[in-house]
Design brief:
This is Pantoate--beta-alanine ligase. It holds the Pfam family Pantoate_ligase. 34% of the residues lie in helices and 18% in strands. The strands form 2 sheets. It has a 6-stranded parallel sheet, with helices on both faces. Strand 2 (29-34), helix 2 and strand 3 (55-60) form a beta-alpha-beta unit. It has 309 residues and is an alpha/beta fold. Mean pLDDT is 92; it is low at 108-126.
Length: 309
């Protein structure tokens, strides 16, 4: 129902109480974890959740645990009031879980998630004493792709998602396939740790010009955005070539890298991997996904294309 006002919960104990109360009434709960600054891609995840559950919780939390010390989390865009309005417009969101700090355990020497003297939020690392020190790692799946250049990223992602699962206690959780490696890592974590949660991957959503929806797109200049279209265009070209019989991964990879470099981008990685194991492939003989991360200006963009031949 459009214009429905979601209940905003900031306390993790109240969130857990709300979930358990509704589960006691035999209500099913879906969770859509986000870091806010919502766009149509996020809203599509909510619509996917509504297909599977009676109630939907959207979490909005910029997770400091997935930022390394040299990554300034204060640059991550935020518009909480705008997000709430978008959720009202899409309808069907029952709760917005918006905690201040899920690593605060009431200790002064806990997790570094504070302001510097210049007023900026800083990326956090574990501190001494009684601070946060427990992490979830999906050891093999986290190593490649984004894990190569962001070694603590998936440790932070898996840990915060596990915490959200323990707080919200959903039946279903929906993740976007744009973050393909993240989706597979969460699926594996749920399997390995026996969470009683169904993890659904929702299809990547693109703007009309083909650029994958991302909260970071707002930081692209008009020229950078035009150049960044080389990512999606070259991926579509590679998919078409593979479907026509070009299954040599090196040749497909080289064509995508060349297109991005010619457009003025800097490639972090461009890899064709197995859809399940994320192992790098030399030749496409089974369902594969072509994953790309590239910089345009100071914005790092990720995209991917599933290839089924």
């Amino acid at each position: 129902m459009a214009n429905k006002e979601p209940l905003i919960i900031t306390d993790k104990h109240q969130m857990r109480q709300w979930s358990r109360s509704n589960r006691a009434k035999c209500k099913t709960i879906g969770l859509v974890p986000t870091m806010g600054y919502l766009h149509e891609g996020h809203l599509s995840l909510i619509q996917e959740s509504q297909k599977h559950t009676q109630l939907t919780v959207v979490s909005i939390y910029v997770n400091p645990g997935q930022f390394s010390p040299n990554e300034d989390l204060s640059t991550y865009p935020s518009d909480f009031l705008g997000d709430i309005q978008k959720l009202k417009n899409v309808g069907g969101v029952d709760v917005v879980f918006h905690p201040q700090n899920l690593y605060d355990y009431g200790q002064n020497d806990g997790f570094k998630n504070s302001e510097r003297e210049d007023g900026k939020m800083v990326s956090c690392v574990e501190n001494s004493g009684m601070g946060h020190e427990t992490w979830v790692r999906v050891e093999r799946l986290e190593k490649g792709l984004c894990g190569k250049s962001r070694p603590v990223f998936f440790r932070g992602v898996a840990t915060i998602v596990a915490k959200l699962f323990n707080i919200v206690e959903p039946d279903v959780a929906v993740f976007g396939k744009k973050d393909y490696q993240q989706w597979r890592i969460i699926q594996r974590m749920v399997r390995d740790l026996d969470f009683g949660i169904k993890v659904i991957g929702a299809d990547l959503v693109r703007d009309d010009d083909g650029l994958a929806k991302s909260s970071r797109n707002v930081r692209l200049s008009a020229q950078e955005r035009r150049r960044a279209l080389s990512i999606s265009k070259s991926l579509f070209d590679a998919k078409f070539a593979a479907e026509k019989g070009q299954v040599d991964c090196k040749e497909l990879r080289d064509s995508v890298v060349q297109a991005i470099l010619e457009a003025g981008g800097k490639v972090d990685y461009a890899e064709i991997v197995d859809q399940e194991s994320l192992d790098a492939l030399k030749e496409i003989k089974s369902p594969a996904v072509f994953c790309v991360a590239a910089w345009f200006g100071n914005v790092r963009l990720i995209d991917n294309m599933e290839i089924n031949v």
